[in-house]
Amino acid sequence: MAMRYRVLQKTYKQMVECTSPYIHGLGLFCRRDIEAGEMVIEYAGTVIRSVLTDKREKMYDARGIGCYMFRIDADDVVDATMSGNEARFINHSCEPNCYSKVITVDGQKKIMIFALRRIVPGEELTYDYKFPLEEAKIPCNCGTKRCRKTMN
């Protein structure tokens, strides 16, 4: 897995590009065929402790900045808002073509995005955000046949 990660760091820009999507805001699109199970991109950013996420989210909201955070585990979160890569623009879908997985490389946990199935050039990359269930619902814009209408 570590070797695949190192190769990906040098080649992911050949696989994906960020542009206007079909779903929301910006999106990440496939530039070449990506096979099922292939490592696509790391969700990169600054690793912060979970206890800091609310404070940062409030700070970003006050500045009118969109917030891009992804939980690694109970203790750590990747904050891609100010220092992330294109992976932060992957949109949610109720019928995704990718999935996320935490892997360990050289003793550090990394969030990786993998292809769930074969993805063709021009197709938008998506994954299920798997937000926790809450009373306040976040509307889903994926538009798929199996859309749950909310992301949580």
What does this structure look like?
- The chain has 152 residues and is of the alpha+beta class.
- It contains 2 helices and 10 strands.
- The N and C termini lie far apart (31 Å).
- 25% of the residues are buried.
Strand order of the largest sheet: 3-9-8
CATH class of the domain at 2-44 and 85-127: Mainly Beta
Structure summary, number of beta strands: 10
Range of strand content: 25-35%
- Name the average pLDDT: 91
Shape summary = globular
User: Number of DSSP helices?
Assistant: 2
Largest sheet: 3 strands, antiparallel
Give the proportion of residues in helices.
10-25%
Find the CATH topology of the domain at 2-44 and 85-127: Beta-clip-like
Structural class: alpha+beta
- Run of helices and strands: HEEEEHEEEEEE
The CATH superfamily label of the domain at 2-44 and 85-127 reads: SET domain
Radius of gyration: 15 Å
* CATH architecture term of the domain at 2-44 and 85-127: Beta Complex
How many angstroms does the end-to-end distance come to?
31 Å
Low-confidence stretches: none
Domain Post-SET: 136-152
Domain SET: 13-130
Protein name: Histone-lysine N-methyltransferase trithorax
GO cellular component, one term: histone methyltransferase complex
Could you name the key traits of this structure?
152 residues, alpha+beta, Beta-clip-like, three-stranded antiparallel beta sheet, 10 strands, globular, transferase, Histone-lysine N-methyltransferase trithorax, Post-SET_dom, transcription, transcription regulation
Question: Secondary structure elements and their pairing?
Answer:
Blueprint lengths: L1 H14 E4 L7 E4 L8 E4 L3 E4 L3 H11 L5 E3 L4 E4 L11 E2 L5 E8 L2 E8 L10 E2 L25
Parallel strand pairs: 7-10
Antiparallel strand pairs: 1-2, 3-9, 4-6, 5-6, 8-9
GO molecular function, one term: histone H3K4 methyltransferase activity
Protein name: Histone-lysine N-methyltransferase trithorax
Keywords: Bromodomain, DNA-binding, Methyltransferase, S-adenosyl-L-methionine, Transcription, Transcription regulation, Transferase
